[in-house]
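re: ur question from earlier - yeah i can do the single chain one, its not a big deal. heres the input i used so u can compare w yours
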Amino acid sequence: MTMTTTTEMTLNPETTVGELVVEQPNRSRLFEELRIDYCCGGRKPLRQVCEEKGLALEDVLARLEQLPTESQQSSHSTVAELTLGALIDHIVDEHHAYLRRELPRLDGMIRKVARVHGEKDHRLVTLPVVFAALIAELGDHLAKEERILFPAIRRLESGDPEDTCFASVGQPIQVMLAEHDSAGHTVEEMRRLTEGFNPPTWACNTYRAMLDGLRELEADLHQHIHEENNILFPRALEREQTV
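and the output i got, formated as tokens:
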């Protein structure tokens, strides 16, 4: 059986990169490869992103059109179809739980690598400081989402919103968007400090495992922020207009 591909449809270069991933989640893999930010920067049209990164738009469109439409059969392929409450459950159970599990583990590894190899590579001394800031930022961020924003969105979905400390759900959403941008900048700094999470030839197994964990953390954060910025938040704001 021949796999159906997106060559049967025409991609609009004015579509935002976030919308492109919402339409077909496996496009995120190509965007990761090309270092195209589809989460925090997901509101930019593909044409603009290609211009900013010096990528040939025609080449990117051609590669997108070659992607099989049914190549990704994970839970991410149906995220856009979930109800608001189910989408929140997915985000908390998958992404928030992942962060609470991985951040402490990676923190220990980063501190160990910095202690053992910091004299050989002084950038490793900075990495624990940057990572500690990310832990503090994300810890506060997750708490605000779970205690304030997500319950408000659930009430919107139920059609019975209660009085809150904000006039519109758009107010806490704007705060979360800004914090997503900040977390993205922090992860980008970690990528810079580790030369793209690539180990030097002399790296020990712990060093290599640390970089692998950071690379996985970056990918999960990209998916996490994409699902909130480009799916959950727009749908919550749309729902608010009907209540």
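The mean pLDDT is 89. not sure if urs matches, ping me
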